[in-house]
């Protein structure tokens, strides 16, 4: 792959920084951060050249690893003084390129903010630093019978600060909500170096809801330095059903039927045949490899509640045409059912040299139709797709299989991915469920939003960061870019396909 | 009461508008809104001179009642052109003065936006106009076995647009969340007259979370003209426990114990002896009038789940020292238990010529202590207090009893109310649970937030409304006002009372 191909077409670079300016900034940074926390050698910068959107690579100008909130404040003040942009980074597991570095910018790593500061079982919350791993919170809370609900697939590795920046989801967000629904308070450093507290430990906080505004803002409004998360009591019991279907659309309809019945499963996941086979080969979960689709439905709660729900969902699945419905006999089988789902991404990775994970959301009732359309596009682009996703939320994760060494395949894959996202918008959905926009979906933001809405986004950005130094070029495209991309906004009432059910 | 006393000390008036300017604006408004929708006679303006914060009265300069979104757009463009401020108003039931009119401003009434546009049982949502009454949504959805969860006490009268503007709560928000957790999409007209759509019908929406930002922004960022709300399936069963305590603090500890056990009741309400007696005299709910406090705990869900929870909560209440625990024998008794709670405000109103309802939130574990301190303050101010509130959320509603005809009592009541809110902040809580800041709590915002946080609020406001024409003088105080009020911000780590448990 040529060096040029490693730069995403989407990313605009800010102004160049001269060697002299860079050296001056390094000197000043060394005055506020311990010397091992300022990285500028080629070798040291290499681990930071990409995040989870690994198709692209680029070395940052500098990496700074502060250890205290005061140091973050001083680093941001210096960057502001030098007019050098800053990209904050947690564990670097993000899939849309939110932490992708700038060649002319500082990468602000929060890895040293890795302490759990307090666990308060009475008020069911925990105060943590942003570099704490998602799963580490639940591990620490387990002694009190509590856990932190949002569980992105990367939860062993991803950091809670990154989860907040991207408003991460996971299997259980169907019942327990996204990150924004599971946090109470944030401490944030502004680009001016001011420390502000957003939200609070109560039900509601007066003033504008800057807590929600900051959540999912992809590092563009401030740097998160402390988080108070909600903790939930571990449910008494969890049980999983596995249902097989000989038709993908029918599986999609079963999802709508379960949710429509009033039951809210803890998780409701779907895998298509490509994913089933890949997962089965990889971890031997005992999946029915002939099925066109399987659903995994987890129910949790009290013993009585789960027993009742299991019966009802079982009947529903059979009524919806499932060819087979299995209930995990014990906890071991339950974990095996999930093991296949959780290993699906690496399993699919064995089918092809590379894959590209998309993330779009559609109304549940359109699942079957949209999956059929993705299948048609797969033929059209000549690229295989594996679907494994949060069906209960209507949150699709099509994995496009490609080979980066075949000239033109990455570009064709990007086009295909963009088309899938536009399809989601066409069906009244959105271009991201839980992975964020980053650099990956900038163009599709032009499809999702009107120019007036984008203008309002830019005004909000300017209220926090008037000079555009925080993670520039990510998440919200300029109107100029949208004009170049083409006026693709799908207005309500002007949907191109008259057969799409309107609401 | 003198005319001057009717003007809240908190409200700053914008610049005066000359009779000529006013007449010109009326003429232009008549060009865009039907003539019966532009009110300017003294008589016609009177119904709009206050909202639910009825201690104060003031006539608006004009009332405009548009009937379509296009008319709202044109009205806002005219107000912007004339630099005349605009206060949006739903049903006028708000308790903090958010819709209190300006003598030099236009009151934009949304009463004619009273249609339910669509109910979509498959995706469990409804698209409604802002003037629709809260309860009317549940009534319309009942045919599908669905309902809209947030239920402010005023739900018969209050409008959904006002609910969004104030991020309203209610008895059931303990389990089902505030308004912000129960809406999907908003259509909003900006002060420039642009129509923008915030949020969407999917799980998550890309870009900054302007849906959450707009919710609870008290009419200061835009005018809400359409709302898509989530609908929930009606639970199979609901059951209520009534527990009596001979000590208020013990009742507070029982609340913390129930929530700490992992059960999330649909509602968990507390009434003190003043409220119990008042309610019992008024509606004969069968309350134990000797009790110092009662708790009402509603559990909902499937039959099995409710049966199990009832047993567990019953045991907990007895272990926590309840002198009596009753379970409603049938639906009639359940409704009677709630009738007392729901009638508590008017019932307390019979004890005294006037009352002033406060709304603050504290961490649940401090309920007992804070109620004791409010009791001490009641003696100090020589004003009786009745407490009836959402205990499960830690959301207090002390009703201060006073007589507006006794010189100085209203002022003493306001001081007492302010002190209660500062007490909430002192205990790590907030100055509002669900009623908003409006004009009532402007000074306490200075206690709640640092100058840096308030500055950020003003920057966000300016991103939507740079000239400050939307509901000026509400919700977010100027730094100048805070300086006059005194530097009262309680910093974390500098709490004045060392015995307050820190987290």
From TrEMBL, chains A, B:
GO molecular function: FAD binding; oxidoreductase activity
PROSITE patterns assigned: FAD_PCMH
Top-rank lineage group of the source organism: Bacteria
All residue ranges annotated as the FAD-binding PCMH-type domain in the record: 56-234
Keyword terms of this UniProt record: FAD, Flavoprotein, Oxidoreductase
Pfam family, one: FAD-oxidase_C
Keyword Flavoprotein attached: yes
InterPro entries for this protein: FAD-bd_oxidored_4_C (IPR004113), FAD-bd_PCMH (IPR016166), FAD-bd_PCMH-like_sf (IPR036318), FAD-bd_PCMH_sub1 (IPR016167), FAD-bd_PCMH_sub2 (IPR016169), FAD-linked_Oxase-like_C (IPR016164), FAD-linked_OxidoTrans_Type4 (IPR051914), Oxid_FAD_bind_N (IPR006094)
Cofactor: FAD
SUPFAM superfamilies linked to this entry: FAD-binding/transporter-associated domain-like, FAD-linked oxidases, C-terminal domain
Protein name (Swiss-Prot/TrEMBL): FAD linked oxidase domain protein
Organism: Thioalkalivibrio sulfidiphilus (strain HL-EbGR7)
Organism ancestry: Bacteria, Pseudomonadati, Pseudomonadota, Gammaproteobacteria, Chromatiales
